[in-house]
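Handout for the seminar on molecular recognition.
Each group receives one record of this type.
Step one: identify the two inputs.
Step two: read the structure output and locate the region that could contact zinc ion.
Step three: write two sentences on what you found, then compare them with the reference statements printed after the record.
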Amino acid sequence: MKPLALCLVSICILVRGVESAQAGRTDEPLDIYWIDVEGGAATLIVTPMGESVLIDTGNPGHRDPDRIVQTAAREAGLRQLDHVIITHYHSDHFGGAATLATMLPIKHLHDNGIFEGIVDRPDKSYLECKAGKRSVISPGDFIALEPLAGENSPRLRLQCLGTRQRYIAPPPGEPANPGCADFKPKPIDTTDNANSVVTLLSFGPFRFFDAGDLTWNLEKELVCPADRVGKVDVYQASHHGMDASNNPLLIRALATTVAVINNGTTKGCDPLMFATLKETPSVQAIYQVHRNLRTDGSPNAEDEYIANAAQACKASFLKLSVDPTGTTFTMSVPSTGHSRTYRTH
Ligand SMILES: [Zn+2]
């Protein structure tokens, strides 16, 4: 970019920041980007106040941090990441953090810390990763986000529903979930997937659920004996859409309208998960970060709902924008020109 153009972009970003602080941004959408990190996870939330939360940081090396910075800076106009949440210590989730922190300042890093019974330890570069502040996240915690100005503005909240295999209590009076009686367990997950941080973002009536790579038996804990989550509008398919996760008991309880699968070309987007989504009456659409290129007949969403179709891809993202009142949200796939608006629950 030429120096003048760079300067103009900087001024624009600066002006946007100043304007937003003054106006309280009650007229701005809430945006979520699913950045293509090739079967890892990097979900970027930008609030109407211009604050940012990145859930997971993709893989080690430069490819994924580069992609995150490009989306954050170019698309969202960010100059820092206000919060980064690491769901668990597998390299497709925490691996990009240390490099990312050298490219875009991380103000506050939230993770599981070094806890009793830890099975998969993060490496030294992650433990020494530069961040303004580090916190251990626990069930029930809220990430401190600036509220919207104006008494009629939608309430914005990002809560940790559970982590390290402990979860918040169901709402008082929540009835027993009759589906729990039919639960069939899978072998106990002894990896750190089981310790994944589960988050729920809400903006007025809009609700988005992200459980990292939480697996089958623990997903049941979220909705049995009584449902701790409630309905959501958007479900990020757990564990890249693998069948070791995506327990139908959870998916039925969430009654999501849209599912987003952050799969890779040969990772995730498994048949049982896909069938479960298709059989869930509330689900209106399934989006994928990548086309599933396995040759075993594995499923795929319709072409226009897939951000990247080929192995050699341009790393296109999926984008969601919730309108300023929280009553509708629009999913877009910039690479295919797809855009569709849904009503929140
Ligand atoms: Zn993963």
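Reference statements: Residues 41, 90, 92-93, 213, 240 surround zinc ion (CB under 6 Å). The chain has a mean pLDDT of 93.
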